[in-house]
Amino acid sequence: MLTTDPNDPELGHGSDDKPVPMNKKYLVLSEEERAKGFIRPVRCEYIHKGKFVGRNKPRELTEEEKVRYSQYGYVAFVESDDKKSSIVGIFLSQKDIEQLHDGYVGGCNHETTMGLALSETYARDPNFYGSTYCVHCSMHRPVGEFVWKGTDEVVGS
User: Fold this and answer.
1) b vs e for 17-51, b when ≥16 Cβ sit within 10 Å of the residue's Cβ?
2) Which residues pair with 123 in a beta bridge?
3) 117-140 pLDDT, tens per residue?
4) Segment holding 33, helix H or strand E
């Protein structure tokens, strides 16, 4: 079910830390607003890639890093390859290493398909949503963990 009322009590909000059913309702832009046109292509499928950590190969921690970060469970570090980012790199746990695929960590790499009104809302206002649902993980996760199917374009960008 969909609604254009942001105060609808059946709406969910934000990301999930554990599996949950889909929300009873999802917020969309009105038909009139969507009819004004789109600033992005209308796309209905996205892939849950996870958090992008870069395509560089992770390296083992130095002895100093092992001491400093052992309390967090980090076992490796990957330098950022994003020239637009000020982030130097990201520390990874063993679980992160095991989940690492194509430069992403934590995603299931499965596809989710959404209806036309939701797709048109993204196309009209790419920043409208902060989280989206992964049908395989059964969780709402930040839109930055997803890419549009067939592209490297992050959902919500």
Assistant:
1) eeeeeeeeebbbbeeeebeeeeebeebeebbbbbb
2) none
3) 999 999 999 999 999 999 999 999
4) helix 31-34
Instruction: Collapse the DSSP code of 140 into the 3-class scheme (helix H, G, I; strand E, B; otherwise coil) and give the result.
Output: strand
Cα(42)–Cα(135) distance, rounded to whole angstroms?
20
Distance CA 58, CA 127 (A): 31
CA atoms of 58 and 77, how far apart (whole Å): 5
Q: The whole model's pTM is what?
A: 0.82
- Backbone angles phi and psi of 73, in degrees to 5: 80, 15
* pLDDT tens sequence across 100-123: 888 888 899 999 999 999 999 999
Instruction: Name residues whose C-beta falls within 8 Å of residue 99's C-beta, 6 or more positions apart in sequence.
Output: 50, 105, 106, 107
